[in-house]
Specification:
globular; 0% strand; mainly alpha; 2 domains; 163 residues
Length: 163
């Protein structure tokens, strides 16, 4: 392999999502002891829950009003949602994969997203957290996983029918 091919493959690795995931994951692990971050046990990566927790932190900061949310959000903002959004945009731009996808019916897609978010808040978890809760011995997590799989199956049926 000549030098130009070796340098090009190294550049591709440094701009790959795997590399960014490794770097961000390592920084998150290092941030815990440095900043004394104590997230709750069995706290996964969830766009719905962390967006709710970010709103809770903002409502405490701005209005001194606490929503029903995780205790970790009282003092620290959970910036996971913003980090995932910015990381995915940056990664897609670097890999020339950034593009807008136009849907046929924006209102229908908005309400589907609203339903998914609300049902995610009803089970009080994301799939990652459900698995972690089940691993911690939470019996309700198995029931929630079963409901999640049933909901996914029903959603797939609706999508195949074009609803």
């Amino acid at each position: 392999m000549n030098k130009s091919k070796k340098g090009k493959s190294k550049l591709l690795f440094l701009t790959s999502p795997i590399f960014f995931g490794f770097v961000v994951g390592s920084l998150a692990v290092l941030a815990q002891p440095i900043f004394k971050i104590q997230p709750p046990q069995a706290y996964g990566i969830c766009i719905v829950c962390h967006a709710r927790d970010l709103l809770n932190w903002l409502s405490i900061l701005l209005f001194k009003f606490k929503l029903d949310s995780a205790e970790a959000t009282i003092t620290l903002p959970l910036l996971t949602t913003i980090g995932i959004f910015l990381g995915s945009v940056l990664s897609s731009k670097l890999n020339n994969e950034y593009k807008f996808i136009k849907t046929e019916n924006l209102i229908k897609m908005f309400f589907w997203g609203l339903l998914v978010s609300n049902f995610g808040l009803v089970i009080m978890s994301c799939p990652t957290r459900l698995v972690l809760r089940f691993a911690f011995g939470d019996p309700f997590a198995l029931l929630s996983i079963t409901g999640l799989l049933a909901g996914i199956s029903i959603g797939v049926i609706f999508l195949k029918k074009g609803v």
